[in-house]
Amino acid sequence: MAKKLVTFGEVMMRLSPPGYLKFSQANSFELVYGGGEANVAISCAYLGMKAAHMTRFPDNAIGRAATQFLRKNWLSTDQIIYGDNKLGMYFLEKGAVHRPSVVVYEREGSAFSLIEPGMINWKEVLEGADWFHWTGITPAISDGAAICLLEAIKTANKMGIMVSGDINSRKNMWKYGKTMQEVMPKLVQHCDIVITSPRGIHEMFGLGEIGGKFKDSAKELMDAYPRIKNVVGKKRKSISASEQEIQGRIWNGTEYIKTETFEISHVIDRVGTGDAFAAGLIYGLLHYDDDLDALNFASAACALKHTILGDVNMATLDNVTSLMGGDTSGALKR
Amino acid sequence: MAKKLVTFGEVMMRLSPPGYLKFSQANSFELVYGGGEANVAISCAYLGMKAAHMTRFPDNAIGRAATQFLRKNWLSTDQIIYGDNKLGMYFLEKGAVHRPSVVVYEREGSAFSLIEPGMINWKEVLEGADWFHWTGITPAISDGAAICLLEAIKTANKMGIMVSGDINSRKNMWKYGKTMQEVMPKLVQHCDIVITSPRGIHEMFGLGEIGGKFKDSAKELMDAYPRIKNVVGKKRKSISASEQEIQGRIWNGTEYIKTETFEISHVIDRVGTGDAFAAGLIYGLLHYDDDLDALNFASAACALKHTILGDVNMATLDNVTSLMGGDTSGALKR
Amino acid sequence: MAKKLVTFGEVMMRLSPPGYLKFSQANSFELVYGGGEANVAISCAYLGMKAAHMTRFPDNAIGRAATQFLRKNWLSTDQIIYGDNKLGMYFLEKGAVHRPSVVVYEREGSAFSLIEPGMINWKEVLEGADWFHWTGITPAISDGAAICLLEAIKTANKMGIMVSGDINSRKNMWKYGKTMQEVMPKLVQHCDIVITSPRGIHEMFGLGEIGGKFKDSAKELMDAYPRIKNVVGKKRKSISASEQEIQGRIWNGTEYIKTETFEISHVIDRVGTGDAFAAGLIYGLLHYDDDLDALNFASAACALKHTILGDVNMATLDNVTSLMGGDTSGALKR
Amino acid sequence: MAKKLVTFGEVMMRLSPPGYLKFSQANSFELVYGGGEANVAISCAYLGMKAAHMTRFPDNAIGRAATQFLRKNWLSTDQIIYGDNKLGMYFLEKGAVHRPSVVVYEREGSAFSLIEPGMINWKEVLEGADWFHWTGITPAISDGAAICLLEAIKTANKMGIMVSGDINSRKNMWKYGKTMQEVMPKLVQHCDIVITSPRGIHEMFGLGEIGGKFKDSAKELMDAYPRIKNVVGKKRKSISASEQEIQGRIWNGTEYIKTETFEISHVIDRVGTGDAFAAGLIYGLLHYDDDLDALNFASAACALKHTILGDVNMATLDNVTSLMGGDTSGALKR
Amino acid sequence: MAKKLVTFGEVMMRLSPPGYLKFSQANSFELVYGGGEANVAISCAYLGMKAAHMTRFPDNAIGRAATQFLRKNWLSTDQIIYGDNKLGMYFLEKGAVHRPSVVVYEREGSAFSLIEPGMINWKEVLEGADWFHWTGITPAISDGAAICLLEAIKTANKMGIMVSGDINSRKNMWKYGKTMQEVMPKLVQHCDIVITSPRGIHEMFGLGEIGGKFKDSAKELMDAYPRIKNVVGKKRKSISASEQEIQGRIWNGTEYIKTETFEISHVIDRVGTGDAFAAGLIYGLLHYDDDLDALNFASAACALKHTILGDVNMATLDNVTSLMGGDTSGALKR
Amino acid sequence: MAKKLVTFGEVMMRLSPPGYLKFSQANSFELVYGGGEANVAISCAYLGMKAAHMTRFPDNAIGRAATQFLRKNWLSTDQIIYGDNKLGMYFLEKGAVHRPSVVVYEREGSAFSLIEPGMINWKEVLEGADWFHWTGITPAISDGAAICLLEAIKTANKMGIMVSGDINSRKNMWKYGKTMQEVMPKLVQHCDIVITSPRGIHEMFGLGEIGGKFKDSAKELMDAYPRIKNVVGKKRKSISASEQEIQGRIWNGTEYIKTETFEISHVIDRVGTGDAFAAGLIYGLLHYDDDLDALNFASAACALKHTILGDVNMATLDNVTSLMGGDTSGALKR
C-alpha cells in the first residue's frame, strides 16, 4: 500500500510573466501556487505516494482556488482550514544566462501567518501518515505558525511518524520577534532527518563552520541532536541561470556518501528544485534500503524538476528511476 | 493650451481571469492597474487634457511596473513617491447576464496606505493644475491618506484650483478607527463639485433621505456646504451584468438637469464606469458653458467606458462628442 | 452535514477553438473535460454537496489528466477505474446568433465503452451516498455500460438511495445492437425522479404523444412506472445561438408546476445547461420542501450555466438563490 | 460539377488587437489576410464552388505567407504573381455598442499597386471560369491596377464569363490622378451584375439621386449600361456596433424585390459582410432560378458573416440555406 | 521545372501542451497535423518541389480542417478521399534535458485505417510524379492500408517513378493479424531507395545483425532485393532531450559514405526530424549528382528541423544549402 | 543628478511570430517597437539616466500607440512630432541554432523618412542634455533625415553636449540618391565618440583595411577626424543563432583596451544587442573614470540584452555591475 506523507506550511499564489518576459513587459501573469512544503507533498504524490498538505487559506474565492490547485495535484485537502482574507503571493521574473530571476514577495498578513495554536487537530490530520515533513520557512512566518509546527512535530513523534525538516531559513524572514537561533533547536531536536548545509548548521546552531566540510558539520549536529539519523545536503553549482549542477550528499552517522553530479544544461524553472530534492529523499528513504540509492533518487528528482515549469515536480517514478539508472538521453517515450 | 488635472489616490494591480472565466478556471491573469482617481486622470488624458496622478508605490520592481502603466497612459509620473514593499491589488472575475462580477481585495498594508502627512509637497505637485479630483475611497484607506488628502484640498483652494470629489464611500472600508461621518465633512466643505447620491448624502452627512429625490438631497447638501457649486449624480439601471442604462443628473443651485438615458446593450467591462463619468464631468465643465452639455459629455463618456476593457476609459474626444450628439450607430471609422 | 451525490458515465475531453473561431481557423484548442453525469456531480459540488463520479479512464497520462480535472472540480476520484487506452473526445465549435454550434464526436472504442459488468463494486462506490444520478447517454454507449448502470441503479435501490435519470437519448447513438426501447424501461422502472419530455416519453416508451402536453405524458409515464415520484422537464426556446429562454416544469403526481421564464440575453456557453438543470433539481429536491422552489432552483442554475465556459456549472449557491429570488441584475459583488 | 469563380484585387495583411482591446492596449495582433475580392472568392469556396484569386504579392517570406492563407482557405494560387517588397496592410480596432471600430491603412506602394498592364495572362487565369468578380477598390489603387482590371473584364466578356462588380468606391482612395467618374463607366459597361446604392450611382455616374429610391436609380443605370442584367443592393441599419440589420434588394429589369430583414443581435466581426453578400449573390444567381431565392441566399450569407471572425465568410452551404429557410434558432448541430 | 513528389499515409492531429508544459498542466493544446509521409511531402514543397499527399480523412469538419493544413503547407489536396468519421490523433508532451517527451496515440479506427483496396486511382494520383515515397508505418496500420500501398508502389514501378521507403516499423503497431516480416519484403522488393538501420534490416528481413555494421547489413539487403540502389541511414546520438547529434550514411552499392556530425545544441522540436532527413534525401538525390552532397543535404535538413516547431520541416533551400556548406553561425538574414 | 541622453531616429513597429514560430506558422504577431537610437535611449533610462527620443510618427492611432511604448519605457515624449500616415515596420522571425533569424522591412515612405529640415527645434529638444547619440541608419533613410541629424549634431556641439555615433550603415539602405561615403564624413567630423569596425572605417572613409587591425583603423580615423576621442568596437562570434560571444574593444588615442569575452549560451533575443552595447558605453563613459570599466560595462550590458525579449535592454544597473564584476551565476534575487 502506498505510503502517506503529510506536510504543513504556507501556500502562495505565484504570478510570473510568460516565458522570459520581465515585469515591465508583462500584460498577464501565469498563475500557479506553491510553497516549500506543499511542493514536497505534491512531488511525492506524483511519484505514487499518498499525500496531504495542511495549511490555512483565506475564506474566499481566491482561497478556494488555491485548494483546487492542490486537489488537482493529487493532495488530500479536506483537512485544510479557512479564515481571514489574504493569500500570500509572490511574483517571479524568470532569468536566463547571466540575468538572475527576481522574486518579490507579498506575504505579510496572510491567512496562514495568522494561524493560531489549537486551530489544527494534529492527531486527526496525521492519522495514517508514515512521514511528516516541514521546512525552515514555516517557523519564520509567525509565532502562531511556529507553535503549530511544534505541535505537529511532537504529535508525529508520539504517533511514531518519521519527521524530516528542510531547515535552512533566511534570516531576513524572521520579523515577528523571535530569532531562528531561538526557535530552530526546539524543532530540530524532534527530527529524524535533516536537510541542511554547513552554513545553515553554523547560523542556526552555532555548530561547525560556514565554509566547513559537510561531514564535519553534520556530525556535530547529530551529536547535539541525537534523534537525527541522517543529515542530508545538496550541492548546487550555478554556472548560469540556464545551467546548473546538482550533487547530493548524506551523512548517516557512519558513512559520508555523495552522488554523481547531475548537469542540467537547459534550465526551464529553477524554483522548487530543493523541494523536489526533499521529496525525492523522502521517497527514496521509504523505498530503498541503500542510502546511496535514496540519495541518487533525490538528486535525480531534483535534476528533473529543473525542466518542469512551476513550483512542483511532476516527474514520474519512471522518469526518476531512469535518470538515477544513468539514462540521461531524454529519449522519446511512445 | 490643454487644461491640467491632478488626482490623488491608491493605484492597485488588477488581476482578472481572461474573458468570462471564473477564478476556479483561471491559469493566468490579465494584468492592468487601476484606482478610482488615477482612472479619472487617465480618462482625461485620453480626451486631450494634461494629467498627473499622485500616489505612493512600493519601492521595488512591481511598484515601478505600476508607474510604467500610468506613464503609458499619458500621465505625468515624476511626482510619485516610493516606499515600503506592498502594492494593493484586487482580483476581478467578470460576470455576465445574471452572474455577478466578483471582486476580492488584497489592499491592506499597501505602500499607499502607509503614506504619512508631509510626505508630499502639494504646492509642487499642484503647480500648473486647473483641477484637483479625489474620491471617497482615499480617506477610508488610512489616517495618513485622509490627512494627505486634506492637505491637497486645502492647498488647491489656496492656489485657486477647482476641487471635485466623487464622495461615495463604502462603510466596510473604514477600518482604521475613524468613520466617514467624522472625516468626510472636513473634506467636502472645501469642494466645488461633488458627485454623490441621495443615499451617500444621507449616510455621510445625515442630510436628505436615502430614497429621496436627488434634487432635494442636493439642495440640502449645498445649503450645508456653500462652497459646492454643483451636485452631480449618475443613475444606473442594471438590467443584467451584460446590459446597463445610465443617466446623468445635476443640481447646479438653480436648475435640476437630466440627460437622456444611454443604453449599453453589450457590456464589456463595467469597472471604472463611474470614474469615466467623473472624468467626463471634469472635461465637460472645463470645456462647455452649458451644464447639460457637460452632463451629456459625462454620461456619454460613462456609456463608452462600458465597452472598454480595464479600469480606464480610453474613449477619444471624437467618440464622446459623437455619442453625446446622438450618434449611437458605432459605425466604422476609416 | 453535506448530502452526497454519486454519478456514473463517460467523461470526454472537450476540445474547442478559442472564442468564436471556427474549426478551420483554430491553431489551438481550449481543453476541458465533460460528460452529462460528471457535469451534474461537479455542479452539485460547487453548490456545496459532496460528490463522486464513477467512470473508467484509459490507463495513461491522458486518463490521469482527466481524473485531475474532476479532482480540481471537487469530486472524489479514488473509485475511478483505469484500463485500455482511449479517452472519448468531442470537438466543439461555438456558434453565435444564427450560426449553430457544431459538435463532432470521437468516442467509439473509449475505455468507458469497454467497461464490463462486475468491474465496479457498487456497494463500495455508493457507500454514504444520498442520491444516484444517471443519463440516457450511458446505456447507449455499450452493452457493458448499460449493464453496469443497471447494477448501480439496483444497488442504489437496495441501499435506499434516491435515483434520478435524465433519460432522453439520441437514437443515432445506439450502435451496439440494442435499442433504447428495449433498454430504457428496465432502467426507468427503478427510478424515483425522471427528467424527460413528451417526445422522449413517446420515443422510448410509446406513451403519450410527441407534441403532447407535458402533464399528460408525465401522467402516463408515472402510471406505467409507479416508483417515479416526479417527472420533470425543461422547456427551452432558442431565439438564436446567443439568446435562450428556459422554463422548468414538473408533474409530481398531484400538481403541474411551472417556473417563470428565465431569459439569457448573452449566451457564453450552452453546453451542459441541461446538466446544470438536473444538478439544480437534485440540490433543490434535497434542500427545499416545496416543489416549486426546487424547480426554480433548477431553472436558475440552468440559466446561470449559460454564462459559464465549459461543460460544468460553477455557479455558487449564492448565485442561484439570488436569481431564483428574482434578482436578475447581475450586480457586482465586493 | 462545381462552378468556378475568379476574382482580382489586392489582399492585405489585417492586424487587430485581440478581442475588444484598443490599439493602445495591444501587445500582440491577431493576423489574418483580406481584401474585398479575395473575400468573395473564399466565401464561394466555402460554399462549395471552385475559386481562384489573382493578385500580386511581394516576393518575400511575407508574400508567401499571404499566399498560404489563400491556399488554406481553398483558393487556387498557382496563378499569383510576385514582385517588389511590400504587402499592403490594415490595422483594425474592433468597436462595440457605441464605440466605432477603427481602421488604419498602410497600403501605399504595395506590390499590388505596382502591378502593370501585361503582367497577367488573363486568358490563362480565366480558363474554366464561370464568373469573374471585381470591386470598386481595385481601380482606385493605381492606374496599373485599373488597366489590368479592364483587361480582365474584357477578356471575360470574350470568353463568355459572367462579370459582376461591387462598384462602390471611396473618393478619398483615388490618389493616382484619375477620378472614379472617369474610370468606372469604362469598367461598368462590360458588367452583367452590379452591386451598388443610389449614392454610388449618383456619385460615379451622375445618375439618380443620392437619397433616391433604389429602383429608380437602378433603372437609370441599366438604361445607361444595357449589358447590366441586375442591379443589387444591401440596406444596412447600424443600431450599434454590436447590432446590425440587413436587407437585400434587387432590380432585375422587370421586378423590384426585397428580402426580409435579418437582425444580427450580437455582432462578432462586421468587416467583410458586404463581400459575403456579394459571394452569396454570385452563388445564388448561379444555383437558384428565382431572383428572390438568390437574394435571400445573399442576405443570409451576409448575416452569417457578422458572426465569424476575420474578413471572410466561412459559413457552410447548410448554414446559409437553413437561415434563408427561416431557421434563426442557431440550434446546435451534432 | 520543379520535380514532383507523391506520398501516401495517415495524417494525424497532433495536440501538444504549450511550451514545455506537461499534460497535467495543460489547459489548451497547440494544434498541428502530421504523419511520416505527409511530413516528407511538405518538407519537399518548402524546398521548392511540387508535392501531393494521398490520404483518407473523415468526412466532417475535422477532416476538412486537416486538408486545409496540408493545402496551407503547399500540398496538392484534390486527390484526397473522405469517409467514416474519425481522424487519428496523437498527444505530445515535449521533454527537456533528462525529461523525455511523451507520445500517446489515439489512432485506432481512423478513416485512414479503414481505407480499402480500389478506393484510390493510383494512375491518376501518380500522374506527373517523379518520385513516390512511403514509410513502414502505413503497412502496419491495416490490411487495407498495406494493400493500397502495394498498389501504389507497383503503379509507380510501371510508370517509371522512383520509389523510396523509410521502412523502419514498430512491432507493437502491427495489430491487424499480419507481421512486418510477412508484409515488408513484398513492398521493399519494388523500391529503389531504402532508409533503414542494421536493426531494421535484421528485424524485418532476418539479414545482418542488430548491432552490425551499416555497410554489411546494407549489402545483404541489396543482395536480397536487387532493385534497391541506395541503402541510407541516419545515426542519432541523444545527449539529452535538448541536445542531439546527427550523421548521415549511405551504401550505394560501391561506396560507404558518411557525413560530418551535425550538433543541435538547443532542440526545439525533435518530432519529424527523420522525415526531414528523408525529404532532404529525396531532394538531394534528385538535384545533386554526388551521393555525399545528397546525403549532406539530407543531414543538414534533418538538423534544421530540430529548430522548427511541429511535425514538418519548413527550412528553405537557402537554409539547407548554407548549413551543408558549413555555415553553422545562424547569422541574421535581412 | 541623473545625466540626460537625447537620441534621434526612426522607431519601427516590430512584429514577430510568438516564440520560435516561422512566418508561415504565425496566426498572431507579438508587438513591440524599436529603432537603433530609441533602443539606446531606453536602455539608458532603465539604467537610471534621463532620456528623451526625438522622432516623427504618423498622426494617427498607430503613431500614438508607438509614443505610448516609449513613454512606458521611461522616455520623455513631449518633443515628438507627428505627421503623414505611415509607421515603418519590420517583421522578425526568430531563428535558433543553425536556423537564422529573418528580418523583412516595410519602412519606405514612413512618417520619419518624410521629415524635413526645420521641423525640429533642436535647441529646445537638446535643452538639459549631457549626451546626444545617433546611428548610421538615420542618414541612410532620407535626405531630410540626414539634414535634420546634421542640425542636431551641430547644435549639440554648440551647446557643449557630447556626441556619439554608432556609425555602421548598410549600403543597400541608401536609396535616396546620396551615398554613405558622401554623407558620413560630414556627420562624423563633429563626433566625440564613434562606434564602428575596421570594415566600417574602410567602407565609409576609405581608411584602413576591411580585415585590418582595430587599433590601426581606429588610429587612422582619429587622425582624419581629430574631434573623436574614442573609437569603440564590439567583436561578436556567432557560434550559432543560440550561442554568441561578445568582446568590447576601444582605442582612446593612447591605449588599445579589450574586455574579457562574454559567452551567451542560451540566446533569447539577439536584436538590439549592439544598441545595448552603445547604451552601456554612454553610461560607462559618463559614470566611470576608467575606459576599461566603461567598456566592461558596455560589454556586460550587451551580453545581458541577449536574454531579454524585444529590441531594448531592460537590464538594471545592478544586473550590469554584477556581471561586469564577474558574477556570471545568474543566481536568484529575492
UniProtKB/TrEMBL annotation, chains A, B, C, D, E, F:
Gene3D superfamilies xref list: 3.40.1190.20
Give the protein name, as stated in the record: Sugar kinase
The UniProt keywords, alphabetically, are: Kinase, Transferase
Source species, domain of life:
Bacteria
Q: Which InterPro entries match?
A: Carb_kinase_PfkB-like (IPR052700), PfkB_dom (IPR011611), Ribokinase-like (IPR029056)
Similarity section:
Belongs to the carbohydrate kinase PfkB family.
What's an example of a GO molecular-function annotation for this chain? kinase activity
Q: What is the lineage of its organism?
A: Bacteria, Pseudomonadati, Bacteroidota, Flavobacteriia, Flavobacteriales
Task: Describe the location of the Carbohydrate kinase PfkB domain by residue ranges.
Answer: 3-305
Q: What is the organism field in this record?
A: Formosa undariae
